[in-house]
Specification:
5-stranded antiparallel beta sheet; elongated
């Protein structure tokens, strides 16, 4: 069977239609290219080498509110900039463009015909001839109003967050002060000094201390550390402080005082969020026979106290027992008694000092440790309470950000009699 002419080479009508479609498509491409330049989502600007505007697209004209004849051939690119933008253009933008041939992503502000400011991002390139000679400058302008609004909102949110953090820090500082005694009791015959080092103002710590009168001729003292930080730790700290004071009035025996605190904490926090603390409680009584004071101490899992003698020696006081307070319904707490002779100083501290990092840049680096603190005390003895606390504060400052936990220190010193000071 013979093939038709349509099968062999296509009909003349179809060829003519294809040619028309191709011509229309070519015209559409040409029209689209011109329209893309004029109505692009960004501004296009061509300037002579001296900055005089040679061509500008409709998009940029609409943004700025100008007619083409107002800019082309009459104004320079720098004339469209704000005062600060012109200064930057002359001192940085233009020199860098001449040296590099291209500069991109520069944040500037254009000045519209009505005086309004338009934040933009500008990219410029130098078009060169075949032999490398510069011919003109092509500039692309991106509308940065949404970006500026976003940055402004970010800045506002950041300022608001900083203000909120400052408010929270003031609240934490105020709350922390309420957990510490406004002043330590004045004990005749004793030099007493204390310090609380805040590792971070963002959260309330759980360290606490106090020195207060009991029955005639006796005083109670304690220093402790509640587990955790924040509002819950502050609540436990407050409960522990007032329980210790109340229990000491009822029965000042240090073991009985800690036993009472253990009962209260274990009863209040025995659910899914148990709370506990380490604490040392002491009873101070004057030693009328030999001079100085006698201190009876009981410890609930707390670091041992340091005794710095008048003869220049220093050592830790062994406190037997030492179970954490609040963990178990019943605790086994023993007491130890030591005499503070004239010239002796007793230092109580929380573990924020000994667990501080020597190298603050290494989170898991070497800790300061008990041995280093003993060497520190040995070099310091003999000393006074105020000198001890001053030296501890200098040490904490030296450790800097390595101290990542709050630290409380309490020192009591028996001064030498005046007659002994001149011998």
């Amino acid at each position: 069977m013979s093939r038709t002419s349509d099968e062999e080479g296509g009909s003349p009508e179809r060829d003519e239609a294809s040619a028309d479609e191709q011509a229309q498509f070519s015209a559409l491409l040409e029209d689209s290219a011109e329209d893309l330049y004029e109505r692009a989502p960004c501004g296009y600007l061509s300037t002579q080498l001296d900055g005089r505007i040679a061509k500008v697209n409709t998009t940029l004209l609409d943004w700025l509110g100008y007619e083409p004849g107002e800019l082309v051939g009459h104004k320079h690119f720098s004339d469209l900039l704000t005062v600060g933008g012109r200064l930057y253009h002359e001192t940085h933008f233009a020199p860098l463009l001449r040296m590099q041939g291209e500069i991109s992503g520069i944040a500037l502000e254009l000045k519209a015909a009505n005086g309004a400011r338009l934040p933009v991002l500008v990219t410029s390139t130098v078009k060169t001839s075949s032999d490398g000679q510069p011919l003109l400058i092509r500039t692309t302008v991106f509308d940065a109003r949404d970006r500026r609004a976003y940055e402004t909102e970010l800045l506002r949110a950041r300022q608001q967050a900083e203000e909120e953090r400052a408010r929270l820090q003031r609240l934490n500082t105020t709350l922390q002060k309420t957990l510490l005694p406004p002043a330590l009791a004045n004990v005749p015959g004793l030099d007493v000094s204390a310090h609380y080092h805040i590792a971070s103002t963002d959260e309330v710590g759980g360290d606490f201390y106090d020195l207060f009168p009991l029955a005639a001729g006796t005083w109670g003292l304690f220093l402790g550390d509640v587990c955790g930080k924040g509002a819950m730790a502050a609540a436990v700290t407050s409960l522990a402080r007032y329980t210790l004071r109340a229990a000491a009035v009822y029965d000042p025996d240090p073991a009985a005082v800690l036993d009472n605190l253990n009962t209260v904490l274990n009863h209040e926090y025995n659910g899914t969020d148990p709370r506990f603390c380490t604490v040392v409680f002491g009873l101070l009584t004057p030693d009328h026979d030999e001079g100085g004071f006698r201190v009876t101490l009981a410890s609930g899992g707390h670091p041992p106290a340091l005794l710095m003698r008048a003869d220049g020696t220093a050592d830790y006081l062994t406190t037997p027992g030492g179970q954490l307070i609040g963990v178990l319904p019943d605790v086994d707490i023993a007491t130890t008694t030591v005499r503070l002779a004239p010239g002796d100083t007793l230092l109580l501290h929380t573990d924020g000092l000994t667990e501080a990092h020597i190298n603050s840049d290494a989170e898991d680096g070497e800790r300061y440790g008990d041995d280093a603190l003993l060497d520190f005390a040995d070099a310091l003895a003999p000393t006074t309470a105020s000198d001890t606390i001053s030296a501890i504060r200098d040490l904490l400052d030296k450790l800097g950000s390595g101290v990542d936990d709050d630290t409380a220190v309490l020192a009591i010193h028996v001064p030498q009699p005046p007659s002994d000071e001149h011998q």
